[in-house]
Task: inverse folding
């Protein structure tokens, strides 16, 4: 099982990014993909989740949305109207085969 995030980078305030999470080693369509983020010195913050049936939940008042493409074994986190306080390492994770798996993270930096 492996989860690999990508798509992070440096973006100006108000900008957008799309993060990707590619899964392998399991049947991707059967599992949820959850996004969290971590700011250095702070705890892990839950961001969004997309279930296997495509339903979603998020915590950032619609600025962040999540989607998935099961044919590509990829989950996405769409970040919009980014703010400096959104700067963090973003992780995707899922509980697969009764174990919580997480990717290595991708850095998002929001700065002018």
Result:
């Amino acid at each position: 099982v492996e989860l690999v995030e990508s798509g992070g980078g440096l973006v100006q305030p108000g900008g957008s990014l799309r993060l990707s999470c590619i899964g392998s080693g399991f049947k991707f369509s059967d599992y949820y993909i959850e996004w969290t983020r971590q700011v250095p010195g702070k705890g892990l913050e839950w961001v969004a989740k997309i279930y296997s049936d495509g339903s979603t939940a998020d915590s950032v008042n619609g600025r962040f949305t999540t989607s998935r493409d099961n044919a590509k074994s990829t989950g996405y986190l769409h970040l919009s109207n980014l703010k400096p306080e959104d700067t963090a390492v973003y992780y995707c994770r899922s509980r697969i085969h009764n174990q919580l798996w997480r990717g290595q993270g991708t850095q998002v930096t929001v700065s002018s």
Summary: The longest strand covers residues 88-96. The CA atoms of residues 56 and 75 lie 12 Å apart. The chain has a mean pLDDT of 96. The chain is about 0% helix and 55% strand.
